[in-house]
Amino acid sequence: HKWVYTFEEGRADMKDLLGGKGANLAEMTNIGLPVPPGIIITTEACNQFYVENRQFPPGMEEQVREKIKTLEAKTGKRFGDPENPLLVSVRSGAPISMPGMMDTVLNLGLNDETVQGLARAAGDRRFAMDCYRRFLNMFGDVVLGIEHVKFERVLETHKEQCGVNFDNQLTAEQWQYVVEEYKKIIERETGNPFPQDPMEQLFNAVYAVFNSWNNDRAIVYRKVNKIADTLGTAVNVQVMVFGNLGNDCGTGVAFTRNPSTGASELYGEYLINAQGEDVVAGIRTPQPIATLQEEMPDVYRQFAETCTLLEKHYKNMQDIEFTIERGKLYMLQTRNGKRTAQAAIKIAVDMVNEGLISREEAVMRVEPAHLDHLLHRRIDPNVNLEVFAKGLPASPGAASGKVVFDADEAEKMGQEGQKVILVRTETTPDDIHGIVQAQGILTSRGGMTSHAAVVARGMGKPCVCGCEAIRIDYDNEEFMVGGLTVKKGDIISIDGATGQVMLGEVSMIDPELSAEFQQLLEWADEIRALGVRANADTPADAAKAREFGAEGIGLTRTEHMFMAQDRLPIVQEMILAATEEERQKALDRLLPMQEEDFYGILKAMEGLPVTIRLLDPPLHEFLPNAEELMVEINTLRLTGGDAGELQEKEELLRKVRALSEFNPMLGHRGCRLGITFPEVYAMQARAIFQAVVRLVREGCKVIPEVEIPLVIEQNELAFLREVVEKTAEDVMRETGVRFEYTVGTMIEVPRAALLAGEIARVAEFFSFGTNDLTQTTLGFSRDDAEGKFLNEYVEKKILKDNPFVVLDRKGVGKLMQMAVQAGRSVKPDLLVGICGEHGGEPSSIEFCHLTGLNYVSCSPFRVPIARLAAAQAKV
Ligand code: PEP
Ligand code: MG
After folding, report:
1. What is the set of domains in the chain, with CATH numbers?
2. Ligand 1 midpoint to CA 465 (Å)
3. What is the ipTM of this complex?
């Protein structure tokens, strides 16, 4: 079996086997770019390694030895040769990039003899010793599991003894001392001397990379990003080039476009006289890439050309690592760059305009879920901000929260529902669980490509990094900036689009869609087959939905209109009425109010369909709480309060108790209310139709759809349909105005789905209420399950997703398919939509497309997400 490939043997489309990094190094090699030669040990070898109980698969080691010979032949150097040693880097590379999650070893192949050869070859002993100590440190840390601080402490002490502040001030002899000390650490910590044999070093390093696939942070990262544990990682062994050989050397990372805004400009940073890890680790704050143009114009030109070439080749924005050795450019990595949602949109639209990709491809380039934060609030540009510090704008969006200095604490507080900003000098992959739970991240060191920045952009979280003005004191859990001290728990705000950091909470405003965003959504509209409507209960929501591109309203929940302060007492009167006459009096007072609501909503949606659902929730939701009433009654009794009031409250309590149910969600709600109190539904229907008449008279085209909730049986709908139709006829007769309307039902109980064929006979449309349909199909209370047990169901992989978030295709979805089929077999042009929360969730939207629904309906802010997801479902 072939476990090892040379770069020449690979291609970009072999990511599953060679990992992302290896496949792209192979691709770059084969298109003739300057890539130091290397070999790749496959992900299959990694998976086999785990099958064999963490042992290399048979034959792998021999193949590695063979392939190393090809590297020796290409470079004229030899592994372990004291005169002209071959040195390599060893890096992990999974099929899906997991930045910083896995381990890397540089300068492998150095030992007490080869370091002399390196010194001679480079003509620089200081450089060689510096490489050696880096290697010992990384090998000790990554391969042997010795804590990095143990090495760091020796170095710091030695620098103090030598009276220097910076690493680059140490001489060759001083580095040699560090090297000797590091070897002692390794011997002390492991009980064995540092392995001098390069082959042994290599196999130890490969072993460590394979092992790192299952380290804690990699596991967390995969979980957060829903990456399969079974992919495995490849190992890249590549000939070293040195960015730390002097001032004509350097190393850097760059994006071919701005990953934050999407602007078409080279964007990145580099360090002169440094080795790869220095940039990504965020330890020294690097120079912006534009400076390279002045410092090394030729290299810059070549680099810029290479970037353009790679973009054209991959037809995507690239994230590139490079090293300059003695004025010569080497490419060490390229991959599709992570970007913010804003950048993803701009890049996709620009690339269509540049003729690089098609509209369909552009639509597929943007992750609908990532649009979320673009559609959310940002800092109001008109408020005066008290900015106390400014860092780099690493990931846009604004956030406020309590300052926390520790990832564990951020995780804990976040899980408790508190808003926190994680403040660190720099973040490392070990902080990932805290970042997940934080609203935003603030770091005092590191550039735009530091770990914190990359991870935050990937997650769509606001991040300000390299905010050097703040000095963090972890011991006292505070940071200082100027004369100001900010303590743990104090509230700050950060703006990841500008880099500003402010004290306290700042006011935020609603988002607007950029021109590129609008363009992309227009292309999505051209592609998609599914309609997109919004759930809206007020004229303002309806207007917002329309602005975001909604093609109608899929659900107006009329109960929300009953909750308003001035209406609740009248609604209570209606519920508590002892006689029909009393009830009608209350309804007569509600009628004009409802009419006004419907008038506003229908008008905002002129020309588009509006589904209005008649009253749905259990009535006790409108009544005062029994326990609170008891307290009030007892107080009145004890204090000898007003007797009349006491009597009234006691009467109220009796009614509340009489209406209380053990299972209100399965109780007297939905159309059951209409069956028992037809006058309530008649009032609502009248309010709708009177509003319609006014609008018709104004010349406004309206399309009302009257919807009956929680139906289980054709007879229910037939009965209530008659109530609605009779009301419509009355209104037409009274006003002399004729109008069109339809009557339909929600499908939100399994029986309704099972009997959809019968129900369709009396319905003009169906709308899946998948919140209730999920609740009733799974038998999970939608109000209790999530807090009580559902999280564990997902955690323990009993269910893949929370079924209230991601539609349960297997169960609920099956019912939906049956209902659509049965309904359309009776009425081929039956209009079918969905208005449960799933209507705004991309994978559920895909299912709705596949099931042949006419539209999805979701909250106004999710309308753009749904437009894009519906197009992606079609492509
Ligand atoms: C549903 O059940 O999915 C629905 C949209 O109705 P509600 O959430 O109001 O019960
Ligand atoms: Mg419902």
Report:
1. 4-239 (3.30.1490.20), 250-336 (3.30.470.20), 377-509 (3.50.30.10), 528-618+661-874 (3.20.20.60), 620-660 (no CATH)
2. 42
3. 0.99
